[in-house]
Amino acid sequence: MTTGDRDKLFTPFETAGLRLRNRFVMAPMTRNFAPDGIPSDGVASYYARRAAADVGLIVTEGIGVDHPAALGRESMGGGASPVLHGDAALTRWRDIVTGVHAAGGLIVPQLWHQGVIRVPGTGYHPQAPSARPSGIWGPTDKAMVPPDYLAAVRDPSTPLTDSEIGDIIAAFARSAANARAVGFDGIALHGAHGYLIDSFLWGHTNMRDDRWGGDAAARALFAAEVVRAVRAATAPDFPIIFRFSQWKLQDYDARSAQTPDELAAMLAPIADGGVDIFDASTRLFSTPAFEGSDMGLAGWIKRLTGKPVIAVGGVGLSKDLQSSFAQPTVMTDNLALVADRIAQGEFDLIAVGRALLMDPLWVRKMRDGGAPDPFRLEAYATLD
Ligand SMILES: Cc1cc2nc3c(=O)[nH]c(=O)nc-3n(C[C@H](O)[C@H](O)[C@H](O)COP(=O)(O)O)c2cc1C
Predict the structure, then answer these.
(1) 228-260, pLDDT tens digit by residue?
(2) A Pfam family matched by this chain, by name (predicted)?
(3) What whole-number distance in Å separates Cα of residue 93 and Cα of residue 370?
(4) Is ligand 1 within 6 A of the CB of residue 352?
């Protein structure tokens, strides 16, 4: 039953030392406005504008961790994704964080290693060998990337060695320590969409027969070790958010976990590693995750781990992300359903991507009853 009590969305939420003024999270969105990995001038005001207009928590665009193979030429967009190491980048991030805090907001960086999805021979360190658990991209018949991209990534490479895996875990830890040093309010780990962490979770990209591969729990070891290392490099009370998805850029219909039991087995070691909040990345927040229940992925993760959860996908819009590139998409108000699911305890926080890209004032307008700016694809190319 929909009661449409939107006020619930504007109530504070506190967990693990993070105190959000409302339930709205800005979803991580790659923008490619960081030539050489250093956020350009407009990035600080881009985030500060959204913080000033009541966004509870900002998760930044994906930021490459301090490892040579973390980023490729194309970060699925154009090729200027930021990093979180080196004086120039850290100075910029410190300013960005200061600006968001001055506007009353909170901000966490999304730490990203593209892994399997990085185009070999590209990025800030083109010579760096590919970082893939089993050397493979995965199935090629359903990929959600353009044909030329697929052609550049489909050839197998040498699987990661044990010591290379250790180096990457250490890179996540270094970047997390840097994040804390410049004042970020926590860490968000990109464990979704087929990138490196997710490629360990998914059986189609992780076919290892050593301790990093095997059943659902074994495939979660890499993610759990990353979380543990990030925890050790920061502080016991530094919030860690982990983004998980079933879908991959290799296959939108993919599932890392086929059943709730398998999902429980996979997430338990990651939660035990020290995650404070899970972020369930779906195309539509309301899509049932498993047969026999209306509950979405966020609800299942909350039920199975007991952790607070962020849901995402299609809030404020008539079409999900992939469809919006091809089909007419309009702003729509579906917040009553979001509010109901939060009130029922299915999830705690709601992330908003494209609607906040279109309109920095979106959260405030939703509170005050204003009309949001219209959906327009060109907004992806500006820092407005
Ligand atoms: C331009 C753009 C860039 C994105 N980049 C990232 C990213 O860097 N990391 C990530 O986890 N998700 C990324 N996403 C996915 C969003 O975080 C979000 O899950 C998705 O857009 C669905 O939310 P929405 O329907 O509210 O847009 C991106 C989405 C868009 C539109």
Answers:
(1) 999 999 999 999 999 999 999 999 999 999 999
(2) Oxidored_FMN
(3) 32
(4) yes
